[in-house]
Amino acid sequence: MVAEKETLSLHKCPDKMPKRTKLLAQQPLPVHQPHSLVSEGFTVKAMMKNSVVRGPPAAGAFKERPTKPTAFRKFYERGDFPIALEHDSKGNKIAWKVEIEKLDYHHYLPLFFDGLCEMTFPYEFFARQGIHDMLEHGGNKILPVIPQLIIPIKNALNLRNRQVICVTLKVLQHLVVSAEMVGEALVPYYRQILPILNIFKNMNVNSGDGIDYSQQKRENIGDLIQETLEAFERYGGEDAFINIKYMVPTYESCVLN
């Protein structure tokens, strides 16, 4: 009877309830939430009631690839190149220990093109400057070496490094004008060279009302790719445009228009 009286008094006078009891009474009952099941798309689990389908992984088309040790670095560190670094008022340049015209282009030019993947000094400087020097003085020695240059060019572009791509594009522009028939000799290799150019073709810097200094330095990838494709078309002969268009569908002719 005493217990019943205490219970009745608590119901009649809620102010006399213990604090802990009042807090428990005020808290809402926990709502049971079903556990979500993460699953791959197009699977049996994906059809279940509480499943959450995981999205597809990023394609990574613009993601930079890791660099690998180059043959150019190995030969340079062994001292196999007849070159040295020379400083003058205009900056650094290569001092050739032999006449460039007398070099074995089948041996040296592919090695220097292999150095296009380099991004650290002095390897990147020697590789890039060496290529331009050899293309400047190569003449009829360049054309027979074209098949050996394709894999180094492809490897450099496949790194997807913005700096390396810009340098390689400038080298390609120099290559097509370095000797007769070089532009036409590159046409069969468009399928190996142009896929990366197609990916980055529309990558331009949107600076709004500001000044895009990369255009002055010729480091805007989209513009460089357009220039390179136009050079390929001009010097690649009558089959150049259709082959460029096949690999880069958005390209419009600079000759036919």
From TrEMBL:
GO MF entry, a single one: Hsp90 protein binding
Entry GO CC: cytosol; neuron projection; vesicle
Pfam family, one: ParcG
PANTHER family reported in the protein's UniProt record: PARKIN COREGULATED GENE PROTEIN, PARKIN COREGULATED GENE PROTEIN PARK2 COREGULATED
Protein name: Parkin coregulated gene protein
Organism listed in the record: Ursus maritimus
